[in-house]
Amino acid sequence: MQSIKPAAPIGPAITVNGVEHTMRVDVRTTLLDYLRDHLHLTGTKKGCDHGQCGACTVHVNGRRINACLALAMAHQDDEVTTIEGLGSPERLHPMQAAFVQHDGYQCGYCTAGQIMSAVALLDEPCGTGDAAVRECMSGNLCRCGAYANIVAAIQQVRGEGGK
Ligand code: FES
Ligand code: FES
């Protein structure tokens, strides 16, 4: 008897944290909602949902974007990294470890976005002084005001040449 193979998934593909997924979502679904509601990657936070707070920052092909302003379907064949793909509790990314070391968070709501921005910043033409770092991080708001410690964490990782 002839075996019947399951049909290959049909649909636009997206790679998230190294795993390829077939997107089956309404074309109006934002990348943020796709990550949180469809893939259950809730580390990426929804703050303003209007591109103003940076809580939803993820990497797409190595560059940071606000996931609330992007449509999932517009990122077909792209590689997305969320905070879950950066490090793990057992093996923190150097930036995650530096945020812990410098108390770069209080409530932590902004933290995933801050860390994703901070990691991307190190590959951008950002000046090295504290003022330049603040400017480059200005799209990420922290309602708790942990800014001084966030800058200290970034500068430490930069100084160590870490990524
Ligand atoms: S939730 Fe995307 S910028 Fe605020
Ligand atoms: S630590 Fe609370 S919003 Fe940043």
Please characterize this protein's 3D structure.
This protein is of the alpha+beta class and 163 residues long. It folds into two domains: 76 residues, Beta-grasp domain (Ubiquitin-like (UB roll)); 64 residues, DNA polymerase, domain 1 (Orthogonal Bundle). The protein is built from six helices and five strands; from the N terminus they run ββαβββααααα. The chain has a five-stranded mixed sheet. Helix 3 crosses helix 6. The longest helix is centred in the C-terminal third of the chain and has 13 residues. The chain is elongated, with a radius of gyration of 17 Å. The N and C termini lie far apart (55 Å). The structure holds FE2/S2 (inorganic) cluster (FES) (2 copies). One FE2/S2 (inorganic) cluster binds next to loops.
Keywords:
163 residues, DNA polymerase, domain 1, alpha+beta, five-stranded mixed sheet, binds FE2/S2 (inorganic) cluster, 2 domains, Ubiquitin-like (UB roll)
Q: What does the secondary structure layout of this molecule look like, with pairings?
A:
Blueprint: E1 13-16, E2 19-22, H1 31-38, E3 57-60, E4 63-66, E5 79-81, H2 83-86, H3 94-101, H4 111-121, H5 130-136, H6 147-159
Parallel strand pairs: 1-5
Antiparallel strand pairs: 1-2, 3-4, 3-5
This protein binds FE2/S2 (inorganic) cluster (2 copies).
